[in-house]
Amino acid sequence: MLSGSSLEALAAASSLTLRSYSSIDFYGNATIGTRGADGSFGLGKLEFDAASLNGATGAHVTIAAGEVLFTNGSGATAPGLGGSGGTLVVNAETITLGTGAKSVDGFGRVALEADTAILGRGAGTIDFGSANLAFAAPLLSAESGAAQDWTTTGAFQLTGTSSAAAVDTLGARLSITAASIVQGGRIDLAAGSLSLRATSGDVVLTSGSVTRAAGVVRNFYDQSLSIAGGRIALTADQGRVDAMAGSLIDLSGSGAKAGTLAIVSAQAALLDGVLRGDGGGSFTLDTGSIPSFAALADKLAASGFNGDLSVRLRAGDLTIDGTTRASSFALAADAGSIVVTGTIDVSGAKGGTIALSAKQDLTVAAGARLSANAG
Question: Residue 184 falls within a domain, yes or no?
Fold first, then answer.
């Protein structure tokens, strides 16, 4: 058991590991590490190696160190204390959520505040219980090859704090699930996979936010290799997906094939921000409402998303007007009718496919054009 004077004595250590083969529990108010007026950290590196960080009811925990790492090296599991209403605040240069299955229990609010980055490392999960998560950092990312799943039944909010430094990331996977998600910072996973899922509220990408899984060029000895863009999935189980004006979603190919943007939205999907899919980006949409298909098609065409396009409308009728160009095109109206009045063009070197499926009527109006020419 560590308290008061014991914690103060460790506050200037260059490196400290707190390891438990079950849980690390906090009672009352606890402070680990300090930060000076000049911004320097007294404690260099702090690692929590445990199955769970638990707070008793009303516990208020503040952690400060140059680098803070959360892992579960033993693979053990541990129950919570049944606490609630506490707060956990972590302030560091870099915060890393590492390997193993981990949980944070008993805190109503968890704030991770990093000067440089919040990162995922290796294969790991972390369950924050019902805490509202407030992440603040110039960059949210994951190291190359990481596979991370972060969940809470509370709200998740990311705030960008300054310009972001580069991080060595390639092909990482990061999944964040919360009741609602507000992405107001910079998420960058080069050629990686990102999933943002809201189980009851909205997924919102605010003005100024950057959500990127673009392709990248890497040098291997004397060769340059272009690596294709990754995948970004935005899912609102009951709400809407809102990419606000001034936001950026980037899946461009950087010399290789662009990636895939996949949106699932029980209500509407609003794409008012900037999309980048140069290099034949693919797009899938599963939604309850499409106000204007022509506007959507124009947006995708102007943004380079002309690879595989797939659209599912859960309710109502849909009119395909304007011009839609893609490598392949699939459209399903679960409950209504489809009327094609415009052009669907999947022509190419080999010719693409067009698939239209409606619960009610399917009408190709006079003057409409469906083209799947090869050559």
Answer: yes
Hey, how many other C-beta atoms are within 10 angstroms of the C-beta on 335?
12
Assess if residue 16 is contained within a domain: no
3-state secondary structure string across 93-115:
EEEEECCEEEEEECEEEEEEEEE
For 223-273, write each residue's pLDDT tens digit: 888 899 999 999 999 999 999 999 999 999 988 899 999 999 999 999 999
- The predicted pLDDT at position 5 comes to 57
Strands 60-71 and 29-32: parallel
Tell me which of 14 and 344 has the higher pLDDT: 344
What is the Cβ-side half-sphere exposure of residue 159, based on CA atoms within 13 angstroms? Answer: 10
291 neighbors 269 (Cβ within 8 angstroms): no
Q: Which of 82, 89, 81, 38 is nearest to 64 (CA)?
A: 89
For the chain, the domain total comes to 1
In eight-state DSSP terms, residue 253 is -
Written as one string, the DSSP assignment of 72-92 is: -TT----------SEEEEEEE
Q: Is 367 helix (H, G, I), strand (E, B) or coil?
A: coil
β partners of residue 210: 186, 248
Beta bridge partners of 259: none
Distances (CA, A) of 247 to 175, 210, 212, 317, 349: 20, 6, 11, 29, 34
Characterise 325 by phi-psi region: left (phi > 0), alpha (psi -120 to 50), beta (else).
Answer: beta
Sign (positive/negative) of CA torsion 65, 70, 72, 76?
positive
Name the residue among 49, 53, 41, 93 with its Cα closest to residue 70.
49
Q: Does residue 57 lie within any of the structural domains? A: no
Range of the domain at 263: 81-371
> Given 3-state DSSP classes, what are the helix, strand and coil percentages for the chain, each rounded to the nearest 5?
5, 55, 45
Residue 24 lies in a domain: no
